[in-house]
Design a protein that fits this description.
The chain is built from 8 helices and 7 strands, in the order E-H-E-H-E-H-E-H-H-E-H-E-H-H-E. The protein is an alpha/beta fold. It has a 7-stranded parallel sheet with strand order 3-2-1-4-5-6-7, with helices on both faces.
């Protein structure tokens, strides 16, 4: 156990199962003394979350559909009532319709494009707007992105465009909230086996290429991502904001 996040109230949004990046971050934050607050979407995710957290002791969890402003308002009102202050947010939420990831990008439906942008991008704005009111002692907001935002990965399609918009949003939000000592950053994770990754065509090929080409000659782990998130959530990164931190074993620096 460490104390980098001792007595810090950290909201974790986006845990779906034990393979979720958000879960890797949650475990790392807990090991550094954080008070964790979770959200879930629907009874199935609630059941999975309760099983994952049963050995963590006293952690809170609340329902939240980020596409519903009333649920977001209720979530942050409850956090304010229970905790008073919020120190960190992990926004690990993204969604695109499976048919828009299986077809070509130019065939993306109008509705599919709207949904991907709403859930994957606008939700960060919606969460940040409410979180800033509770970050009276300053704070850190982090989200998750992927290299498909700047390079073409066939099959990543509309999600790549959404991640590009997400990264731009990080910079704009960071600039606006910086005066309140609130930092906003993104982690660009290398490919890792998650539930969402299964929806990307040829994902196993991407894993093989990264293992072969990356500087460290391996794929990343949840522990890698958890450690980087703790850095961004803690005072160790007190001068870092508006950035995209690549955690991909160095692969993003390869020219081939």
């Amino acid at each position: 156990m460490g104390d980098l996040l001792k007595d810090k109230n950290i909201l974790i949004m986006g845990v779906r199962n034990k393979w979720s990046i958000a879960w890797g971050i949650a475990k790392a934050a807990k090991e550094q003394g954080a008070n964790l607050i979770f959200t879930y979407l629907g009874e199935r995710e609630k059941e999975s979350l309760l099983k994952l957290t049963e050995e963590m002791g006293d952690v809170a969890s609340f329902p939240c559909d980020v596409s519903n402003d009333e649920e977001l308002d209720a979530l942050f009102a409850e956090i304010k009532n229970r905790y008073g202050v919020l120190h960190g947010v992990v926004h690990a939420i993204a969604f695109a319709k499976s048919e828009d990831l299986q077809d070509t990008f130019v065939n993306t439906s109008r509705e599919g494009f709207r949904i991907a942008m709403d859930i994957s991008v606008y939700s960060l704005l919606a969460v940040s707007k409410r979180a800033r009111e509770l970050m009276t002692e300053g704070g850190s907001i982090i989200t998750l992105t992927y290299r498909g935002s700047v390079k073409v990965y066939p099959g990543y399609n509309v999600m790549g465009v959404a991640k590009a918009a997400l990264e731009a949003s990080v910079r704009y939000i960071a600039q606006e909230l910086g005066g309140q000592n609130i930092r906003v950053n993104a982690i660009s994770a290398g490919p890792i086996k998650t539930m969402s990754a299964k929806g990307v065509k040829n994902f196993s090929d991407i894993l093989s290429i990264v293992e072969e080409k990356s500087f460290l000659k391996r794929n990343i782990t949840l522990e890698d991502l958890g450690g980087s998130a703790v850095y961004l959530l803690s005072e160790l990164s007190s001068g870092v904001t508006g950035e995209v931190l690549y955690v991909d074993a160095g692969y993003n620096n390869m020219g081939l």
